[in-house]
Design a protein that fits this description.
about 160 residues; 5 helices; about 75% helix; elongated; membrane; transmembrane; DUF1003; DUF1003 domain-containing protein
């Protein structure tokens, strides 16, 4: 029986010896590790570890020492720690750069909205000023009524002969 391998047939899933690693979980762990490497606590722990290693391997009886003077095994351990720390720190920095890029884009969008709102309000304020230019203000009305009252008083003071 011939198998049909057309585009309408889904591919069978293959089993792999590699584990399925969630990149988000791994990224969070690397960030926590990188954050810990940048603390004074880590420096104190590493200093105490190296100091106790050197003390043990120089002052302990010769038959229970496990790493003699050039401390090759200590160098290997520190190199191994550094070889894992560097990529994890870079991964954490890349994730932080991605978050910063997203935040920057959101800030730009917010600034664009704010500028658009400000421009709209500026146009509205300008149109209100133009509209208020056509509206009589209280001082204007007071002056006009005062002038009209003066004219009426002057007309009333004129003799009646001038009125005819």
């Amino acid at each position: 029986m011939a198998r049909n391998f057309g585009l309408d047939t889904p591919r069978e899933t293959r089993r792999s010896l590699r584990g399925n690693i969630d990149p988000e979980t791994f990224g969070r762990l690397s960030e926590r590790f990188a954050r810990f490497l940048g603390t004074a606590r880590f420096l104190v722990y590493m200093t105490a570890f190296v100091f106790s290693w050197v003390l043990w391997n120089t002052l302990a009886p010769k038959d229970i020492r496990f790493d003699t003077y050039p401390f090759i095994f200590l160098t290997l351990i520190l190199s191994l720690q550094a070889s894992y720390a560097a990529p994890l720190i870079l991964l954490a920095q890349n994730r932080q750069a991605d978050r910063d890029r997203i935040a920057l884009n959101e800030d730009r969008a917010q600034n664009a909205r704010s500028i658009a709102d400000t421009e709209y309000l500026t146009r509205e304020l300008a149109s209100l000023r133009i509209a208020l230019g056509d509206v009589a203000t209280r001082d204007y009305m007071r002056n006009e009524l005062g002038d009209l009252a003066k004219e009426i008083v002057e007309e009333l003071r004129k003799p009646e002969s001038d009125a005819k």
